[in-house]
Design a protein that fits this description.
5 strands; alpha+beta; 5-stranded antiparallel β-sheet
Length: about 90
């Protein structure tokens, strides 16, 4: 399966918004959760980790919410694509 096929087949991420905390949560894979938090300086902090684990697999910042969401989507696609590459 190609990366483009995976991108077309995966449903868009469903983000849950917690306005009281300035956070958004999504589940890019069954084993991972993603969080986007607004920082005090206006940047967006992205954290991706396995469910129940404290240590993040990804921890990075972006200037806009769109960039942060796009990054998580690309990470999701890459994760699924790497799984298919291993199984070829």
């Amino acid at each position: 399966m190609t990366r483009e096929q995976i991108q077309r087949e995966l449903k868009p991420l469903q983000w849950r918004v917690w306005d009281d905390y300035g956070c958004r949560f999504a589940q890019p894979t069954k084993a991972h959760e993603a969080m986007i938090m607004a920082m005090h300086d206006g940047r967006m902090l992205v954290r991706i980790n396995r469910h129940g684990e404290i240590i993040a697999e990804v921890l990075t910042t972006f200037s806009t919410l769109k960039e942060a969401k796009d990054f998580v989507r690309e990470w999701q696609i890459d994760r699924f694509f790497s799984h298919f590459k291993k199984n070829d």
